[in-house]
Specification:
Helices cover 73% and strands 2% of the residues. With 258 residues, it is mainly alpha-helical. The chain has one domain (3-255). Helix 5 (91-107) runs antiparallel to helix 9 and helix 7 (136-169) packs parallel to helix 9. The longest helix is centred in the C-terminal third of the chain and has 38 residues, at 177-214. The model has no long low-confidence stretch (mean pLDDT 89).
C-alpha cells in the first residue's frame, strides 16, 4: 500500500473500503457488478483457453497447453467415473466447468489487493472487490444451481413417484412421514448451504488476511505476505476440488436408486 493511501485511510477505513463491493440496486435486487464483471472475464478466459487448446490439438507431440488441458480433463473424468454411476454426459462437463471456474475465481486472491481497486478508481469506480468466491452471492449462486440439479437428477434416477416416496418414507418408514420429510428437507438444504458457505468462508478469510497484511509498512509485508500466499496456493485448488467433488457426489447420491 502506498503512503498516499495510508494518509487517506485509517486502518478501519482501508479494510472497509476493500471489503465493500461495486453494487447497484437495492435489497434483493442488488447486483454485485464487480463479481459479475470478473466472473464474465474469467469465464471468457476459460472458454478461449480451451478453444485454443482444441484448435492446436495434435495427435503427435502435444504442446504445453494441450498437456495441461488433457491432464485436467483426464483427472476430472476419473473423479466422475469413480463417483457418479450413471450417464455422465452432463456431469463430467459440469464438474470440469465448476473446477476450472472456481479455480480461476480463487486465483484472483493472489493478486495484490490494491491493484484492481486502483484500476477501477481510474474509471470512477469507488469500490471494487475482484475475488468472486469471496462474494456470498457468487458462491450461493453456484451452489443453488447444483441444488436444482440434485432435484432434477433425483427425479431422473427414481421418477417423480420414487423421489416423493424417498422424501416421505426414508429412513423411518411410512408411519413417521412427518419426521422423514423434515430430516430429508434439512439434508437437502444443507447441501447447497455447505457448498456455498465453505467456499465463501475460506476465500473471504484469505482476502481479509491479505488486506490486513497490506496495512503493514511495505518493507514488512514481504514475510507474512509471502508465507500466506504460499499457504493460499494450496487452499486455492483444494477449495475448487472440494466444490467439484461434492457436486459430483451429491448428484451421484441423488441419481442412485435405494
Amino acid at each position: 500500500m502506498s503512503s498516499a493511501e495510508h494518509a487517506a485511510h485509517t486502518p478501519q477505513e482501508y479494510v472497509t473500503h476493500h471489503l465493500t463491493g461495486w453494487t447497484t440496486g437495492e435489497g434483493f435486487w442488488t447486483f454485485n457488478l464487480d463479481t459479475l464483471l470478473m466472473s464474465s472475464v474469467l469465464g471468457l478466459v476459460l472458454v478461449l483457453t480451451f478453444a485454443l487448446a482444441a484448435r492446436r490439438a495434435t495427435s503427435g507431440v502435444p504442446g504445453h497447453l494441450q498437456n495441461l488441458v488433457e491432464s485436467v480433463i483426464e483427472f476430472i473424468d476419473g473423479v466422475v467415473h469413480e463417483t457418479f454411476h450413471g450417464d455422465s454426459r452432463l456431469v463430467a462437463p459440469l464438474a470440469m466447468t465448476i473446477f476450472c471456474l472456481v479455480l480461476l475465481w480463487n486465483t484472483i486472491d493472489l493478486i495484490p489487493v490494491d491493484l484492481f481497486p486502483a484500476v477501477a478508481g481510474l474509471f470512477g469506480v469507488q469500490y471494487f472487490r475482484p475475488v468472486p468466491s469471496a462474494d456470498m452471492s457468487a458462491t450461493f449462486g453456484l451452489s443453488i444451481t447444483v441444488f436444482l440439479l440434485i432435484i432434477i437428477y433425483s427425479i431422473k434416477g427414481k421418477g417423480v413417484g420414487g423421489y416423493i416416496q424417498e422424501l416421505l418414507f426414508h429412513p423411518f418408514g411410512k408411519y413417521l412421514m412427518p419426521f422423514n420429510l423434515i430430516l430429508n428437507a434439512v439434508e437437502l438444504l444443507a447441501k447447497p448451504l455447505s457448498l456455498g458457505l465453505r467456499l465463501f468462508g475460506n476465500l473471504y478469510a484469505g482476502e481479509l488476511i491479505f488486506v490486513l497484511i497490506a496495512l503493514l509498512p511495505w518493507w514488512a509485508q514481504w514475510g507474512p505476505g509471502g508465507a500466506w500466499a504460499i499457504f493460499h496456493i494450496l487452499v486455492i485448488p483444494l477449495q475448487a476440488f472440494i466444490f467439484m467433488t461434492l457436486t459430483v457426489v451429491y448428484l451421484g447420491m441423488a441419481h442412485a436408486k435405494h
